[in-house]
Design a protein that fits this description.
Oligomer: single chain
Order of helices and strands: HHHHHHHHHHHHHHHHHHHH
Strand content: under 5%
Largest sheet: none
Length: 402
């Protein structure tokens, strides 16, 4: 029957809590720090906005390229080495950035940081808890996203203060020290005794877990989840850089157009909290179908509102809650509908196409903007893409591997 020789270990709240702290620090000190570095780096290195932005695109590309090998290493039981090494690489990348005096040095630092993020952000952390806690991985993933969702709220003001007090180069020294002295030892300690294989849940179909990863890469559920993930990654990546301009065009005043997007992080965490406390009261597969619908509902509301401020506010509410909970759906879909044994590898296979979608989507939305029509044409395309993504997930659920 393919039963595991011993029952899965109990859910370890302490491990998940410490892993969540690592997510808060990594998201905040790297991902959200870039926006604060752009202007001082541009002034000192003589870069244009396009040249400085290229560094972040290179980081996203490096993260996508490394997602596959990182996933393979985690599935082989090397999660401790992966996440500890990733934290050390982040420290090295931040230090390299702090001594960059040319565009080439700046780009090299962010290529290294992008590769390190592939080993430290949500995807590897989700794989770790999925492999260790097969009966509770969804709750663990929701918990991980609580602190991760607050990273911008905590670190943007902290990073801004550091840069104001120390200058951007010395501020990066402080952030590098945090990863070297806190995150790396933290991952090294809490991720000991990693299972060499995912801990099996006793089911009639458990024998299927021993199939090679190639079997699942060619399966219809995996390909459909790939469509779902890549399309919604594109949609949710396209909107943030244009959010303020979009809301201005939708009729919000200047103060609201700036304040409302700033609150999206809190709305995202609120949505995750609702999911955490109430998901046991309804079918999780129904929740997985409904949550992604919040994104097209928000877009449709904005389009139907025709510039009315109330429609813009409703859009931000739907989008914020949907985007917050969507992280959990994307993080659990492979394990729920394809396979848990190879969950890190399978998610890693989606890394590069997702990174390309995230890099291209904001540019495409900008190209579709016109002085007369604003973002209308782009929003219709995003609406269509999000609807296709929802249908793809629905089809994956129906054809999930037994």
């Amino acid at each position: 029957m393919g039963l595991s020789p011993s029952p899965p270990p109990p859910y370890d709240r302490r491990l998940v809590g410490w892993l969540s702290l690592g997510q808060l620090i990594t998201w905040g000190s790297v991902f959200y720090t870039f926006a604060l570095l752009m202007e001082p780096v541009e002034r000192e290195l003589g870069l244009s906005r396009a040249q400085s932005s290229l560094a972040f695109s290179l980081a996203l590309l490096a993260e996508g390229v490394m997602a596959w090998p990182v996933g393979r290493w985690i599935d082989r039981g090397h999660e401790r080495a992966v996440m500890t090494g990733g934290s050390l690489l982040i420290a090295a990348g931040l230090l390299l950035n702090s001594v960059a005096h040319t565009a080439a040095g700046f780009y090299a630092a962010w290529l290294l940081l992008g590769a390190a993020l592939a080993a430290t952000l949500y995807t590897p952390a989700f794989a770790v808890v999925t492999r260790r806690f097969p009966n509770d991985f969804r709750r663990a993933i929701i918990t991980l996203t609580f602190l991760g969702g607050l990273a911008s709220t905590v670190f943007i003001p902290f990073d801004a203060w550091l840069i104001a007090q120390l200058g951007w180069r010395h501020a990066l020294w402080v952030l590098a020290a945090v990863h070297l002295l806190l995150c790396a030892p933290l991952h090294a300690r809490i991720l000991r005794h990693a299972p060499k294989r995912s801990i099996a849940v006793p089911t009639a179909g458990a024998a299927a877990a021993r199939r090679p990863v190639g079997h699942y890469l060619r399966s219809a559920p995996f390909l459909l989840i790939g469509v779902f993930t890549v399309l919604l990654m594109a949609v949710t990546a396209a909107l943030p850089p244009h959010m303020v301009s979009l809301l201005r065009g939708a009729g919000l005043s200047e103060s609201w157009a700036i304040a409302v997007p700033a609150a999206i992080g809190i709305v995202q965490v609120f949505g995750r909290a609702l999911l955490y406390f109430f998901e046991h009261h309804f079918d999780l597969h129904l929740a997985n179908r409904l949550i992604p619908c919040l994104i097209p509902i928000g877009l449709a509301t904005l389009l139907a509102g025709a510039g009315h401020p109330a429609a813009a506010l409703a859009f931000v509410l739907f989008y914020g809650m949907g985007n917050g909970m969507l992280t959990i759906v994307k993080g659990t879909a492979i394990a729920q509908y394809v396979n848990r044994e190879h969950v890190a590898t399978l998610n890693g296979a989606l890394g590069l196409p997702s990174a390309i979608a995230r890099a291209i989507a904001p540019l495409m939305l900008g190209l579709l903007w016109t002085p007369t029509g604003g973002y209308t044409a782009g929003l219709w395309i995003l609406l269509a893409a999000s609807l296709v993504a929802v249908l793809a997930l629905l089809a994956a659920q129906r054809r999930r591997v037994k």
